[in-house]
Amino acid sequence: MTSRRMTFQCLLATGLGVAILILGAPSAAKAYGSPELEDPPVPKSLVPPGYRLVHGDILVPDVEARSGGAPIPWSDGIVYFEFDGNVTSTNRQLMLSAMDEWNYSGADVQFVPRTVGNGSFYVHIQLSDGNNAAIGMQGAGQTINIVSWGSKFIMAHELCHTLGFWHEQSRTDRDTFVDIITSNIESGHEHNFDKEQNWLSQSTSYDFDSVMHYGQFTFTDCLIPTPGLCETIVCRTGYEGWQWFIGQKDHLSSNDIQDMKNEYGSNSIGPRYIDWTVSPSAEDGSLRYPFRSFALAEATAPDNSEFWIRGGTYDELGTTILDKPGTYRVHNGLVRVQ
Ligand SMILES: [Zn+2]
């Protein structure tokens, strides 16, 4: 398997004179499941002493591997981090962008640079030849290994492990939704499809759209994955429409974020999304149901909220806008208010 080839191309807009960041496009109708979209294999050499690898890319301490309780959440939702000297400044920025997906998700979690004296537990992020992460809060300098710096949502996936979450298809109720085709799994990797009994929050329904879900060919034993012959995960009757979408790595799903909120609490000030291209059945400012106007967003959101604005033209002439303190971020294209 090769590293993912996804790129995010965004134009910055400054017309509003407000803070600008980049956000990956909301869930586009796009097929996933091709082998290049799966996690690269993780060489054994990446496993630090005292740890072992489970589910393909999750590091757990040897002494409690698979036998202990749920992963440990981070105190106050704060994850201190440091970069290894082998991480370039470009890759550091890319990782910070992935962290912002969680920092601005609305869940009360924050990745914060480690400084002297600000945290005895922290993660050490380094360039490696695979992607994996220690799950939950484990210790001082616990590892995040990254090779796919070009994929924000592979990194967001690993950060989600750090925050304490397993893979979606490891849920104990997964057999209602997907079949694991054991005969197609590469020998020696069957354990990566084990169920996990001990979770942090898991109150949302099974989520085919989760950034934490494997793709349909993950760990297949086929050299050339062939639909109908090589799947390791098959969506069950009634859910077939998800078959080519499981394993997506271009956004956090609504349930990914909700699970994080359920565990760590909700940050009431943001973010809200404004997107004129979506026609939601209910405008609540979420990624799935964004506001279609600045006016509704401002009327509904508290002071100091974060607003993520889809590029485009908003016809709100005469409406009082942008008079509420907050941060406005444009994730692609130009924004024109007329
Ligand atoms: Zn993973």
Question: Any overview of this molecule?
Answer:
The protein has 338 residues and is of the alpha/beta class. 13% of the residues lie in helices and 19% in strands. The protein has helices spanning 89-103, 152-162, 254-264, 294-300, and strands at residues 51-54, 58-61, 78-83, 110-113, 122-127, 132-134, 140-146, 178-180, 233-235, 272-274, 305-314, 326-337. Helix 1 crosses helix 2. The longest helix is centred in the N-terminal third of the chain and has 15 residues, at 89-103.
Gist of the model:
The protein has 4 helices and 12 strands, in the order βββαββββαββαβαββ. With 338 residues, it is of the alpha/beta class. The strands form 3 sheets. Strands 1-2-6-7-5-3-4 form a 7-stranded mixed beta sheet, with helices on one face. Strands 10-11-12 form a 3-stranded parallel beta sheet, with no helix packed on it. Strands 8-9 form a two-stranded antiparallel sheet.
Structure characteristics:
Collagenase (Catalytic Domain); 338 residues; globular; three-stranded parallel beta sheet; 12 strands; 13% helix; binds zinc ion; disordered N terminus; 4 helices; alpha/beta; seven-stranded mixed beta sheet
Count of DSSP E strands? 12
CATH class of the domain at 40-162: Alpha Beta
Rg, Å, rounded: 20 Å
Q: In percent terms, what proportion of residues is strand?
A: 15-25%
Helical fraction: 10-25%
CATH architecture of the domain at 40-162: 3-Layer(aba) Sandwich
Q: Strand count, sense and closure of the main sheet? A: 7 strands, mixed
CATH-defined fold name of the domain at 40-162: Collagenase (Catalytic Domain)
- Uncertain runs: 1-38
Bound small molecules, deduplicated: zinc ion
Task: Compute the average pLDDT.
Answer: 80
CATH homologous superfamily label of the domain at 40-162: Collagenase (Catalytic Domain)
Q: Helices and strands, in N-to-C order? A: EEEHEEEEHEEHEHEE
Shape: globular
Structural class: alpha/beta
Q: What spatial order of strands do you see in the largest sheet?
A: 1-2-6-7-5-3-4
Q: State the distance separating the first and last CA atoms.
A: 48 Å
Counting DSSP H or I runs of 4 or more residues, the number of helices is 4
